[in-house]
Amino acid sequence: MKKYLHPLFCLIGLSVFGQEVSFTVLDSLTKESIPFATISTNFKQNSITNEEGVFRLSKDQAFTLEDSLFISSIGFKSFAEALLKIKDSVIYLPQKTIELNNVILSQNNLSAEEIIKRVRQNVDEKYDLSLTKKLFFMRESFYQEWDQLQMNLKKSTIKEFNQSFWDSLFLTLPKKDRWHTESLGELNGDWSRKNQKLHLIRAVDLADTLKEKGYDQIDNKLTSILEKSVKEKSYFKIKSGLFFSTKLDRNELIDQVLDSLPADSSGLAKKALEEEKLKGNFHKYRQRKLGNFFEGLVKKNKLNFNVLEKASWYTFEIMNFTFIEDIAVYQIKFEPKSSKAKFKGTLYVDADNYALIQLNYENVKPLKDFSLLGISLKVYRSKILLKFAKFNGTNYQLQFCEREVNYRVGVERPIKFLEKNKYVKGRRKQNELNADLNIKLDQGEKFTLIIFENTPLSQEKFQQIKPQKGFKQDKLNAYDPNYWRDYTIVEPNEVIRSFKANTN
Questions:
Q1: pTM confidence score
Q2: 3 state SS of 337
Q3: What is the per-residue pLDDT across 140-150, written as a single tens digit (0 to 9) for each?
């Protein structure tokens, strides 16, 4: 029995293929994919299409005539059909147009600015930020690419650390690297990072283990040389440029290298170090990732949308009035008006209670761009989509987020390592390494989160939840379409589907 069906193939009776099917959702007019359309069924399975318009359904039992599929997307007519009656893997949604002027007249002819003002009012009453149990799927994709990695040696008293060694070492590092992580679990708590308990159900790393072994070999090689050359009870003095100097134990070398960066970058360096340490604990790192994300959306116990908080920095224009399912929705475009504004995008507002139910935006200028004493950081791209839905009751809750960030890091500065040992008689100074460091690196991250279910959770039940211990993720060298069989997820894009590590 075939368990996975690619959307390019036709479905000839779903019961023939078992309990798992895939579909692609397209615009009936343009034949283009419809990304991030909301998917639901009468058997309580909720999902969303990926950026290619693809989604997948699975069920423990065979599909019946009572099992129906519902698809909705802003600007399109909703789709509803019994699953067994669907004979094609491609589903076309017609565009839904409405006479804007007539509708606007019936809505008191509000301007875009007046609508935004109403959205800002009583934001805390429109969204549920209380304790809940969230069934979620999260995907993180990373890439890095070295533009330049060079160290010009001026002096080294450790003979193994000569120029040839550093040149060959940097040549062995992969110039490009990609990896992906997928997690399914329950997040219990509210939107405060300190008031959350994560229970992972299943998780996988897609990574090139050969490259990881290469990094480990480099680390082991450096450690071996240092252990042979550095005396017990030694400490290092690190000098970078004219103004920075620090003292460290050899076991604290990495920590203090980061701490020795200029003031404007030290916070970022410390954060990066903390993140790196947490990556060794898959569960804790995921919990921190989710906690920081939710907490970042809240300010003073209410949802914090930068565009709304800084509304005077932007111009707003009503582009359309449409429906998503039975909800009347304003589509409002915003662009920078002030030089302080950094974003442009689109707001989708519930016309009944003036709640923001979808937000798409991207930056129009770098979010960070500084260079100080040879250290540079430029966050040149940030793109975010947020969707909210009513799971229970009348208030909105987060349903979906997709965020992409790209940034460039540079280091161009002298660096000096001095080994000192006060326990060695007659000569406190031991070894020295003096070099010019030149690094240019592009990095990026894509974060996807969907919440399938969001159910109320009492304080008593939350307190009874025990912290999860001993979780270990699976590791794969290539994408496996069967890994998430029988689970509902956001379908991967072509980049992830084609991921395959070099195992030679």
A1: 0.81
A2: coil
A3: 999 888 888 88
